[in-house]
Amino acid sequence: xxxxxxxxxxxxxxxxxxxxxxxxxxxKNIGHDIGQGFKTLVxxxxxxxxxxxxxARALATRRMVEEAETLGADAVVNVRFxxxxxxxxxxxxxxxxxxxxxx
Length: 103
What we know:
Elements: E1 2-3, E2 14-27, H1 30-42, H2 47-70, E3 75-87, E4 90-102
Parallel strand pairs: 1-3
Antiparallel strand pairs: 2-4, 3-4
């Protein structure tokens, strides 16, 4: 499966099958929240949350690809990510794009 954030793939002609998406809501446990809260006092990267968001993007992407595969897609173009806070310490991550079939 080809996944790109452009609306074209060089050298390929395709037909659009429709929008596909994948999402997940992730959170860290209270222990990580407290530890990361202390980190905000001194500054620097919140590595636990960076890891959580990377995992969430990977899972959302995988779910988007699975949805595209059910449509018989060869690729997903114009892929975008969105995130939003659902509650304190929890975030939704969504991956979405257009499933396409090569001609």
